[in-house]
Amino acid sequence: MIAPSFPSRRLILLLVAVAMMAAAVTVAMDGVPYEPIYHIRPPKNWVNDPNGPYRDPVTGKVHLYMQYNPNGPLWGDIAWYHVTSEDYVKWTRPESPVAVWADRWYDKWGAYSGTMMNNNYSEPVMVYTCTEPENIQRQCIANPPKSDLHGKRTLDTLVKSPLNVIMSEDMIPGIVATENFRDPTEWSQNSANAEPRLTAREKA
What we know:
CATH architecture of the largest domain: 5 Propeller
Order of helices and strands: HEEEEEEEEHEEE
Keywords: Glycosidase, Hydrolase, Signal
InterPro entries: Fructan_Metab_Enzymes, Glyco_hydro_32_AS, Glyco_hydro_32_N, Glyco_hydro_beta-prop_sf
Number of strands: 11
Number of domains: 2
Protein name: Glycosyl hydrolase family 32 N-terminal domain-containing protein
Number of helices: 2
Pfam family, one: Glyco_hydro_32N
Strand content: 25-35%
Distance between the termini: 51 Å
Largest sheet: 5 strands, antiparallel
Radius of gyration: 21 Å
Shape: globular
Organism: Leishmania orientalis
Structural class: mainly beta
């Protein structure tokens, strides 16, 4: 018969210390228990997939966007939530933190994940997966209004391009799964000649 093994006293003390440290860092400054202090999140509702971050070359401010349901705690009605930081540690929510809503025919099912990049004029542009009913996924863009770019550069609100949709399934030879054609990002073949190219993945 094999005698049962018990954790050593040193291991028990280590586990207790780790538990105490975990408890210490799960009480936020506002006193809400079990709230991660350094985790970025909205005050309520569903959140997933960070998009960005994007450092504004003019202001130096970091802009982080994320997938967000403005209407409830479960996944759905996906929009883009926005926070900013000067140091990647302390984050600020704008007064109206939803930068992009799912409100057009081509993204009624959600403004899914994407990225922020600079266009050929060194201006920020959001590239995202616009999803219409029946989960048809295509790629769209949105930009800060000129008044913001030449003003405070808050990047709080992004205006969808009248050219949307910019990449659809009929532009991609051989695509078979329009319900998994998403997550566009920037790619350059030659870093010495960094002309941006747009790519999106199709899940196998």
